[in-house]
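anyone else get weird line breaks when pasting these?? whatever heres mine. first is seq + tokens for prot A
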Amino acid sequence: MDFSYETNLKQQGYNVIAGIDEAGRGPLAGPVVAAAVIFDFSEVPAELNAVNDSKKLSADRRTDLAKLIMERAAGFGIGLCNHETIDRINILQASFLAMKKALSILKLKPQIILVDGNLPLPNYSLPQKAIVNGDGLIFSIAAASILAKVARDAMMEEMHLKYPRYFFNQHKGYGTKLHLNALKLYGPCEIHRKTFKPVKKLL
């Protein structure tokens, strides 16, 4: 994936550009995780040409690219909201909050942010652009999607050790047949999202 979109923004005077994306809106369990990434686009290494929407990459490829992104980015931040916050304020607001947390720990202050999706970040004072399917179109957003996905998957692998009978290591909390069968058999565990329909039905 090239970074022509960011190059165009640089020509407009935006030198510090942050791409933002989240992972984990759809699952029935676990946190929603967001990442924000800033690159110096004058020196992006060729190894990062493989950066793409995290859903289009294998788990191993994502892990390798995540390491490279963290090494080569000018700055990155990862933020999350847990299942309790998701149940309290809803998944959309929790996703926005996770994004704000990721932005708040960037060591550089962005001049503009590029957000994946059709909704801009609410109550955010800096310039921003919301881009539908941004994770498949915009380098910065794709890089953020990889970091968010790899970070969340690692958390769900840990959750598997704590709650092995739900097989979180396999489906990462998404509503697969395996997960739904385990839910029916054992009922929801501590990290299930109680306001999500398949979980709510069982409570």
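and prot B, same format (seq, then tokens)
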Amino acid sequence: MIPWLEGRERFPPLEAALQEPNGLLCAGGDLSPWRLLEAYQQGIFPWYSRGEPILWWSPDPRMVLFPPEFRISRSLRRRLRSACFRTTFDSAFPAVIAACAETPRAGQRGTWITREMRRAYCHLFELGFAHSVEIWIDGKLVGGLYGLAIGRMFYGESMFSRATDASKIALAHLVHFLEEERFGMIDCQMSTPHLASLGAREIPRTAFIERVRFLVAAAWQPGKWPSGAATCEWI
């Protein structure tokens, strides 16, 4: 059995999270901005399927990406320099999260990005905490990602690609922007070979939480990121 959240009841201690399934902490509550921001600042995130109650997770170990450790392959570097792509920030957040929800995933049936989740994160976007990166070809959205920024900590949520390497290009521009703004870590939540190939690695939950507490307290003003097209001069 796991605890059930009622009203503004606080999250249980992370040590209470299950080992199997890894990181399941509690259920219930809601997706209000207050609840979501409280969760992320404690290293907790919601993840559940349609028809299930809201489930809250804090896995151990935790997959993270430190911006200086991001790996750019030769082929990705060539694509980043290609003139056919245009990259923007915070220009089409609702479209990005919708595309992430609609993109089929290998080994997955349906999506965890429910309508309720989409509304909740669009609300966080309006409040200046959620952000998106968009990749365009000939005016069409072909890739992107979204996540949350609290202090100088970024929490990656999901990405999609409708053209070769489009999501990787979005991540590369995100990493560069975060490094320029002195963000210290990107939360990738769950471990995957794809993320590992890009430089992400697992760290113990205790180390993750210690770093999160430091970064979320760092000065950073919530608000919309610059929406103009990003350049590749840094490559």
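btw re prot B: Residues 24 and 57 are 5 Å apart (CA to CA). The mean pLDDT is 92.
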